[in-house]
Write a structure and sequence with these properties.
Layout: E1 2-5, E2 12-14, E3 19-21, H1 31-34, E4 38-47, E5 60-68, E6 70-75, E7 78-82, E8 86-90, E9 96-101, E10 106-114
Antiparallel strand pairs: 1-8, 2-3, 4-10, 5-8, 5-10, 6-7, 6-9
Length: 126
């Protein structure tokens, strides 16, 4: 499972020295992996305390950035604790789920890159 923590990234000064940038994925780092893909979606979601996202798959490279709360991420047969500042990469067609830990919800920003020949995805059942 590919989980990157903002706590482990040193900022670099970018944009002509005007802002610090914390690179979670460096420019073009995933170009070969996502070649021919497209931005499928970008959203925020929240999982209530004691709840879990139903295990599912889709033909996308999916990324969860944890903004608040803690949980257990499951990708294929691997389980890992995640919390604020973590970026989780989920490969296409990998079964994945997320369950909360503790009394607080987990709140994530999500974006996905669709694979080149993927059809329309029904997110109400996947």
């Amino acid at each position: 499972m590919d989980v990157r923590s903002i706590a482990e990234v040193e900022p670099e000064v970018e944009h002509n020295g005007t802002v610090p940038v914390w690179w979670m994925i460096r420019p073009r780092e995933m170009k070969d992996l996502t070649d021919g893909g497209y931005l499928e979606l970008a959203n925020e979601f929240e999982v209530a305390p004691g709840a879990a996202v139903f295990p599912h798959t889709h033909p996308t490279h999916e990324f969860y950035f944890v903004m608040r709360g803690t949980g257990t991420m499951v990708v294929s047969d691997e389980r890992r604790g995640i919390g604020p500042g973590d970026l989780v990469y989920i490969p296409p067609d990998a079964v994945h789920s997320l369950e909360t830990i503790g009394d607080d919800p987990i709140h994530c920003f999500c974006f996905a890159v669709g694979t080149k020949d993927a059809g329309v995805i029904d997110y109400t059942t996947h």
